[in-house]
């Protein structure tokens, strides 16, 4: 088992954003999380990645209890791709991709450059390695951000609405790369509003609302046979 989440709650001030979440996630699952804005989806990912401290409850990753004191034990194992790319504007594409694996001694600089160039060629950005993020389109930036995460050889990648900041014509190229990554033996958890992608990608779908997991099932059940009126309402609205 990869993640075991017990009675997870998170609040900001007096407001609970996550409420008593219990969940188990197995290796190599491809999970999509859907739900309305403000339902706690992004906060849930941030808790899994240790970017947010939980208010109560426990998260175990491979039997390691996650907290701010033991992040080094999981360093590089949990990768995250953000809505706004979070590339360093003062570093070239190649430097952005290779910085973390070299600093964390996962690869030598030579090894990192070699692997980065292989990835860049695969996503047709090999001619952009010496350019800076400001010279790239949004879709190119997000693909670079995904490759940067892959360079750490993670066991799980969390995607927080990876296409929400993109122009419509750039969305497909990012989703295509995520689909390609899904062929690897990596657990992936994606927050998205792209329902066609979600159906093609997911082995499991979670529907969140008001900080809770309302439904948890395979894509056929979630998209075609919802058990709750709330999920049916959400699907009707988003379609």
Which runs of at least 5 residues are low in confidence (pLDDT < 50)?
A: none
* CA distance, first residue to last residue: 34 Å
Q: Sheet with the most strands?
A: 6 strands, mixed
**Mean pLDDT across residues:** 94
Query: What is the alpha-carbon Rg in Å?
Result: 18 Å
Q: In the CATH hierarchy, what is the superfamily of the domain at 3-86 and 156-238?
A: P-loop containing nucleotide triphosphate hydrolases
Beta content comes to 25-35%
Q: Give the class-level CATH name of the domain at 3-86 and 156-238.
A: Alpha Beta
Indicate the CATH architecture of the domain at 3-86 and 156-238. Answer: 3-Layer(aba) Sandwich
Number of separate strands = 10
Helical amount: 25-40%
Strand order of the largest sheet: 6-7-8-3-9-10
Task: Label the structural class.
Answer: alpha/beta
User: What is CATH's topology name of the domain at 3-86 and 156-238?
Assistant: Rossmann fold
Cα shape = globular
* Annotation field: number of helices: 8
Instruction: Write the element-wise H/E pattern from the N-terminal end onward.
Output: EEEHEEEHHHEHEHEEHH
């Amino acid at each position: 088992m990869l993640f075991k989440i017990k009675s997870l709650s998170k609040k900001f001030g007096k407001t609970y954003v996550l409420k008593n979440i219990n969940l188990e996630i197995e290796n190599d699952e491809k999970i999509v999380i859907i739900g309305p804005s403000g339902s706690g989806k992004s906060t849930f990912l941030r808790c899994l990645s240790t970017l947010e401290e939980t208010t109560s409850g426990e998260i175990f990753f491979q039997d390691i209890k996650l907290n701010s004191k033991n992040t080094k034990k999981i360093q590089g194992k949990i990768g995250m791709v953000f809505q706004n790319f979070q590339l360093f504007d003062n570093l070239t594409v190649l430097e952005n991709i290779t910085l973390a694996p070299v600093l964390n001694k996962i690869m030598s600089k030579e090894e990192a450059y070699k692997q980065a160039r292989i990835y860049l060629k695969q996503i047709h950005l090999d001619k952009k390695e010496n350019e800076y993020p400001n010279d790239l389109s949004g879709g190119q930036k997000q693909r670079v951000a995904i490759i940067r995460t892959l360079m750490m050889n993670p066991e799980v990648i969390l995607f927080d609405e990876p296409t929400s900041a993109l122009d419509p014509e750039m969305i497909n190229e990012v989703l295509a790369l995520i689909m390609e990554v899904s062929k690897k033996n990596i657990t992936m958890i994606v927050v998205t509003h792209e329902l066609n992608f979600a159906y093609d990608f997911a082995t499991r779908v979670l529907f969140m609302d008001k900080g809770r997991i309302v439904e948890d099932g395979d894509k056929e059940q979630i998209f075609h046979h919802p058990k709750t009126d709330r999920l049916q309402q959400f699907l009707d609205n988003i379609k």
